[in-house]
Amino acid sequence: MARHPASAFSLHLVSDLDGTWIPAPEQMAGLGRLEAFLAAHPGIILTFATGRGLASALDLLERRVGHLPQHLVTDVGTTLHHRTAQGGWVEDLAYARWVAGRWPEDLKDRLARAGWPEGVRPQPGVPASRRVALELEPGGDLQLAAARLRALLGRLGVEAEVLPSDRRYLDLLPPGVDKGSAVRHLGIPLPVMACGDSENDLGLWRVADLPVLMADSTLPLPRPGPPWDRMVRAGAPGPEGILEVLVERGWRLGLSNGRSR
Hints:
Structural class: alpha/beta
Number of strands: 12
Helix content: 25-40%
Distance between the termini: 26 Å
CATH class of the largest domain: Alpha Beta
Strand order of the largest sheet: 5-4-3-2-1-10-11-12
Radius of gyration: 19 Å
Shape: globular
Strand content: 15-25%
CATH topology of the largest domain: Rossmann fold
Order of helices and strands: EHEHEEEHHEEHEEHEHEEH
Number of helices: 8
């Protein structure tokens, strides 16, 4: 592994949790190495961006993560929290107001009255505050279900993003809202390296200087156009792959002399 002095790294590292940062049991040593690297390089700002709700994400962090992020994007980009000096979390209210202003509060009721498309049902236990979380019924086709959902939204005259992920989930988000919009809102003046494994990470990859697809993702490469034309595929799964790309390619973002964008 290449070695870089701690002062050399000045980077905004953004990562999905499930399937990306959180390792399989046999990959725990890789997570330890990645967290040790971050602890030794304080110029790296860490943000997690997940489809989980806040309570679920915090529970996962408490159980599985030693090096906590400075920022936490949850609910597929519809909520943003910052870690306080005391170790707690405070919501970014400016971002919350922006998201809420783009979201028809009665959307889930309107969709329920119209009838869910064939093969789609609400995810249990996920509140519809600023998104509608759906899942595919067993044996369904995710892309077909997404197309039916878009057609239903069109008939209702509703503008919303339909975001499939992980071969079984569908999220309805306010237009222009995703994990990437939360990262843009942070406005951190550093190059962005963004790691993910599924379609709901597309917003992250679009705002990243260095988009990284995890080694064990089922998304195919290559694909034409941005951000796929800039995509780097990690050579190892989980934290080991993130660390590999961070060490071998991070300096190419102009980090060796601490330059920002």
